[in-house]
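Replying to the earlier thread about multi-chain prediction with a worked example.

Input:
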Amino acid sequence: MASGGEMQVSNKQVIFRDYVTGFPKESDMELTTRSITLKLPQGSTGLLLKNLYLSCDPYMRARMTNHHRLSYVDSFKPGSPIIGYGVARVLESGNPKFNPGDLVWGFTGWEEYSVITATESLFKIHNTDVPLSYYTGLLGMPGMTAYAGFYEICSPKKGETVYVSAASGAVGQLVGQFAKLTGCYVVGSAGSKEKVDLLKNKFGFDEAFNYKEEADLDAALRRYFPDGIDIYFENVGGKMLDAVLPNMRPKGRIAVCGMISQYNLEQPEGVRNLMALIVKQVRMEGFMVFSYYHLYGKFLETVLPYIKQGKITYVEDVVDGLDNAPAALIGLYSGRNVGKQVVVVSRE
Amino acid sequence: MASGGEMQVSNKQVIFRDYVTGFPKESDMELTTRSITLKLPQGSTGLLLKNLYLSCDPYMRARMTNHHRLSYVDSFKPGSPIIGYGVARVLESGNPKFNPGDLVWGFTGWEEYSVITATESLFKIHNTDVPLSYYTGLLGMPGMTAYAGFYEICSPKKGETVYVSAASGAVGQLVGQFAKLTGCYVVGSAGSKEKVDLLKNKFGFDEAFNYKEEADLDAALRRYFPDGIDIYFENVGGKMLDAVLPNMRPKGRIAVCGMISQYNLEQPEGVRNLMALIVKQVRMEGFMVFSYYHLYGKFLETVLPYIKQGKITYVEDVVDGLDNAPAALIGLYSGRNVGKQVVVVSRE
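Result:
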C-alpha cells in the first residue's frame, strides 16, 4: 500500500507495440492495465489529468513509422501509450496556469489518467455550453486546421469555387461550411453515399460526389466545376491531386492540409500534372496547425457564435471506451468513420 | 511590279511545319523565302518591323504541340513562321505610340520582316547604351521572369539559402546574381563543366554542380545545403523537383518558373515527395511573366544601373542568321546552348 494515503487506481492504457509498415492494424496496439498513483511527483511542474475524450486523427499514422524524414512529429515510443489530442479534467496541477478541476484540451495519453509534463500544448477550456467532445474536433485541432487552412492559406473571396476532398472528415466538413459562410460555391467528395448525403443535406455543400464511383476523377471535376476550381482544400493527395491540378483556375490556391491516401503506401504515388501550377499560376501551400495556434482566440470568437446560432454544425463518430480506440484509429484509413472520430474514455 | 513605287524585297522565314510529339527536330521547321512589300496595308494600326535579334526560349516547345490543356499559350500555326520574342526596328507604323526608326522588343516572327498587328505585346526600347540583344534576355522576357520570380514569388531575405536549377540559362544566371545581391547563399546546377565554371567564376554562385555527374541528386543537395534550402527557383521539374522537396527548410518557397525536363515527354514524370510541402510548410507557386510586366519600369530602374556598374553580367550564346535558328531552338532541349540563346537576323 502506498504511503501517505495516496490513492492507487488502475489505469487502462492503449500501448503502441511497434513501428508499422503499410496499413496499421488493431494488433499494432494492445490494451493493458497498469496502476497509477493519483498524485504528481514531488516538485513536478506538470499536470495529472483524467482523460475524458480522445481524438483519432489521420496524422497519427506518421507517428507509427520509425523516424521518417518527412514526418510531422516524433514517432510514438514502442511500449508506451499512444499520444494524441484529447479533452481532460485536471486532477492535480504543478503549474500555476492550471488548477484542479480545470478542463483542458491538447496532447495527452491514450489511457485513463495521464501525467503531462509538456503543458505548453494544453489549452484551458472556458466555454462549456457546447459538447465537451467538440474540443477534439470542431473547437480543437481539426477546427483550427480548417480555419487556418481556409482563411489564412486560401484567401477566399465571395463567389469563388471551392473543392474539398475527404469532405465529411473532421476538417473537411468545417472547410465546406466556412466556404458557404464566405459565399463560395462548394463541392465536396467522400467515399460513401451516407457521407455524400451528409455533405449535401447537413453541411450545405452545393454539390457532393462519391469518388469511389467515379472512374474518371478529372471528368467528375469538370462536371462540377465547368469553369474550374479557385480553391482546393487538399486532404487526400495522389490521384486526387493529379485530377484537380488541370482543373484549377488561373491564380488558384491549394491548401495542402493532408494526403491521407498516401500515408500507408511504401512509396507515395507520383503526381504528374504539376505543370498546371505554372500555366494556371497556382499557389500550392502546405501548412501545419501548430503555426497558427496564436489565432485560436480569434477562431473561438468567430466559431462559437456560429455554433450557437446554428450556422455551423458538426458530425462526430463517437465510440465508447479505450477498448474500442484501436479499431477507431485504424478505421480512419479505410474511411470507416462518418465525421470526426472520437473515443470516450469517461463521461465523468 | 507593285504600284505606287512600293519596294518588294525577299523575306526569309522559318516556317513551322507541323505539330510535334516528343523531342522537336530541325526538320519540324523549314527555311523558305517569300517576298514582302515593305509597306503596311492601307488603314493598318500595326507595325512593319525589320527583325534584328530573335530569342530561343524553352516555353516555345509548348507552342509546337497541338492545343494542349496545360499549355502556356496558343500553338504555332503549321505553315506560318515561328513566333517568339525578338528585337526589331520599326520601319512603318500605323500606331501613334510608335514611330519609324523606333527600336522595340516583344513578339515578332522568325523572318526578316514582320507585320505585327498585336502591338500591345511590344515594348519600346529607350536605353541603347547596352547590347541590343539584351532585350531578348537580360532586359527582356527572361530578365523580367527572373526578377518577378525571385523578388515577387520567393520573398528572399538576406542570409537565406537559394538553389537554382538550369542555372546558367537565360533566367537562372540572373536569379543567381539577384540572390547574391540580396545577400543569399546560392548554389546552381547545370549540365556541363563549362556551365558549372561559368556559375562559379562568372556569375558568382557560391557553389555549383553538374547534375549529370550526380547519381544521387538528393545526396548532392544535402552536401551543398546541409541545413536545407529556403528558396528553390524551379526550371527543371521531374526528378530534380523530387530531390529538392525533402531538402526544403521550414517555410521554404519554390517559384515554379519552368520544367524543361518534362516538355518533350509524352507523359510527365511523377513527383512523389509532395508530403514535404506539408511537413516543411512550403509554398510552391507557379507564375508567368505576363502577369508581371507592369513591373517592367521598376525592373529597368533596378537592373540598368547594376549592368553599368558591372554588378550584373550576362552570357549569351549567339548564332548568326535565320538559317541557324532551328538548330539553336532545338539545342535548348539538349542543353547545347551556354547562356541565353540568341539568333542574329540582322546587325543593321
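Chain A has a mean pLDDT of 95.

Feel free to reuse this layout for your own posts.
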